[in-house]
Design a protein that fits this description.
Blueprint (H helix, E strand, L loop, with lengths): L1 E5 L8 E6 L7 E8 L5 E7 L6 E8 L2 E7 L5 E4 L15 E11 L6 E9 L19 E13 L11 H10 L4 E7 L8 H5 L6 E10 L2 E6 L16 H10 L3 E4 L24 E8 L2 H20 L6 E5 L20 E9 L1 H9 L3 E4 L7 E6 L7 E4 L1 E9 L6 E7 L2 E2 L3 E2 L5 E8 L5 E10 L2 E6 L2 E5 L24 E3 L8 E4 L16
Parallel strand pairs: 10-11, 11-12, 14-15, 15-16, 20-28
Antiparallel strand pairs: 1-2, 2-9, 3-8, 4-7, 4-9, 5-6, 5-8, 10-17, 12-13, 13-14, 17-18, 18-27, 19-21, 19-30, 21-25, 22-23, 22-24, 22-26, 25-29, 26-27, 26-28
Length: about 525
């Protein structure tokens, strides 16, 4: 693969690799090197030696993962008390270490790479006392809709720039309750949570990982342990990764599934075959609707609907994909909170937010927190996201439309019902639903403003219980119907009942640029 040679006459001696990128085999390969006893710090300098080819770089110690820098030009430094961003500090064990090289884009031949590995007996980085093991903060009880952004990058993603403080300050200015920090293939961001959380007690940092491959990006919502992304290596599969994410109590979601921009966004469109039972959510909107979301929303909804039509119960979420906190990087990038996702949860905590997603209690505001809100209610209380009955009355309460030209409509099994003008704030729109004899039906609600989609809820699924409630049945003394066809919709105020409310909110994503590409 590559032949190491001793560079300058130093003690210990730097190690230099000049090698050819293997054009066959898996998408990642390794450059092994030996670390003797007594080393306090290792620095890896790397270069893909091309303006056309793109290589990613990471580091393994004798036990495995030690960090992932991706396509950055920055050298990687790891030591016992400190490490460069996206890399793990800790003991420097003697033995075989490996530089990990990912073949992100190899089109020009010959493809070459250059590595310089500097071994130091004295560390150069100061101790990073702010890095502490992750521990979730105490939950803040209260059942309500919490506003957040499920796709935010900190500087521990080497293609991003904001600190956690900058992220929190901007998110608070948008009145968000939480942000998920989903950095690329690393977990070092979590070591900084406690330090920043102490300065921002009203905003919850939700842990997460953007599981980034060359054939699709997933969101490991709530994950705090690293999951191997090097698909094609022995034992590394997408289903195995999804299982490893779920084994942590985290959720597997698909990010920007239809964002197919070729080499401008390597691996951004979803092209992996994952067991559908692993998928808990789909990012139906990435970036704000006006920035770039309008380009992909129709295809993203079709991607979501296609899977739900096969019986998969998948929640809708949105994320800005912000790499710059409140800044933008061109007209197609979005700041945090664009879009915004609302989650009905029992408390402001990571576990409660995850449970809200599991139960489909989400609403996506496609542009910002200022978009209209939808609260979807069933007169027969659901179990999770499923109503089991003979019939039910769905009620959609719309707020935040004052002064706006808004319409609301139900979507049954992916097909839109008739639109109804929103004439007051709040406004209630109903659907009287007969549950099918076999299989299931699914219902969501959408609001348009000035003819353009603005807010979308997750689905409520209907499954028939032959002995279940039947609020549409005529009274025993009546021989006539109630005047509404099965599944018909009308505006009005729903009667008081043991209703269960849930909602979804929409948000906005950012298209971000890394060296010569968007990630």
């Amino acid at each position: 693969m590559a032949i190491p040679r001793i560079a300058a006459a130093a003690d210990p001696a730097p190690i230099v690799f000049d090698g050819d990128v293997p054009l066959d085999g898996p998408e990642h390969f390794f450059a092994p090197f030996e670390v003797p006893e007594g080393i306090e710090e290792i620095e890896v300098r790397h270069d893909d030696q091309s303006e056309t080819n793109i290589l990613d770089f990471g580091l393994n110690d004798p036990d495995g993962y030690r960090g992932w820098g991706g396509g950055t030009d920055e050298p990687a430094i790891v030591g016992r008390l400190a490490a460069s961003r996206a890399y793990v500090r800790g003991a420097i064990r003697a033995g075989t270490w490996k530089v990990v090289v990912g073949k992100a884009k190899v089109v020009a031949s010959p493809a070459r790479y250059h590595l310089e590995i500097v071994l130091r007996t004295t560390a150069t980085l100061p101790e990073q006392k702010q890095r502490t093991p992750y521990a979730p903060p105490p939950p803040r009880p209260g059942r309500r809709y919490y506003a957040g952004d499920f796709h935010v990058h900190s500087l521990e993603s080497t293609d991003a720039i904001p600190s956690l403080d900058e992220i929190a300050t901007y998110a608070e200015s948008r009145k968000l309750d939480f942000v998920e920090i989903s950095d690329h293939n690393t977990v070092t961001q979590f070591e900084f949570f406690a330090d920043a959380q102490a300065r921002h007690p009203n905003l919850l940092f939700v842990p997460g990982i953007e599981y980034t491959t060359y054939h699709g990006h997933a969101n490991a919502i709530g994950a705090t342990r690293w999951v191997d992304h090097k698909l094609g290596q022995p034992g590394v599969t997408i289903d195995g990764a999804a299982e490893a994410i779920r084994a942590q109590g985290a959720l597997f979601s698909i990010n920007h599934p239809v964002l197919d921009l070729g080499d401008a966004c390597i691996g951004c469109a979803w092209k992996l075959d994952v067991d559908p039972r692993h998928v808990s959510a789909i990012e139906i909107e990435t970036g704000g609707l006006k920035q770039s979301g309008f380009i992909f929303i129709e295809k993203a909804l079709a991607f979501w609907d296609e899977r739900c039509a096969k019986g998969q119960h998948i929640a809708a979420i949105g994320g800005s994909d912000s790499h710059r906190a409140g800044e933008t990087n061109g007209p197609t990038s979005s700041p945090i909170a664009e879009p915004t996702t609302m989650v009905l949860a029992e408390a402001l905590s990571t576990e409660a937010i995850l449970e809200g997603i599991r139960n489909g209690r989400t609403v996506v505001k496609l542009q910002s927190p200022a978009d209209p809100m939808i609260e979807l209610t069933s007169s027969v209380a659901p179990s999770g996201d499923t109503v089991r009955a003979r019939s039910t009355i769905l009620s959609a309460k719309i707020t935040g439309t004052a002064g706006k030209n808004a319409t609301v409509y139900f979507v049954k099994n992916g097909e839109a019902e008739a639109e109804v003008p929103v004439t007051s704030d709040p406004f209630v729109h109903e659907a009287r639903v007969a549950v099918p004899d076999a299989g299931e039906s699914r219902w969501r609600v959408e609001v348009r403003v000035d003819g353009q989609r603005s807010t979308i809820t997750s689905h409520l699924f209907m499954q028939r219980d032959p002995n279940g409630p039947d609020p549409l049945a005529p009274p025993p003394s009546s021989s006539s119907g109630d005047g509404h066809g099965d599944g018909g919709c009308h505006a009005g105020k729903v009667a008081s009942s043991a209703a269960w409310a849930w909602t979804l909110a929409a948000g906005a994503i950012v298209f971000f640029t890394r060296r010569r590409r968007i990630r």
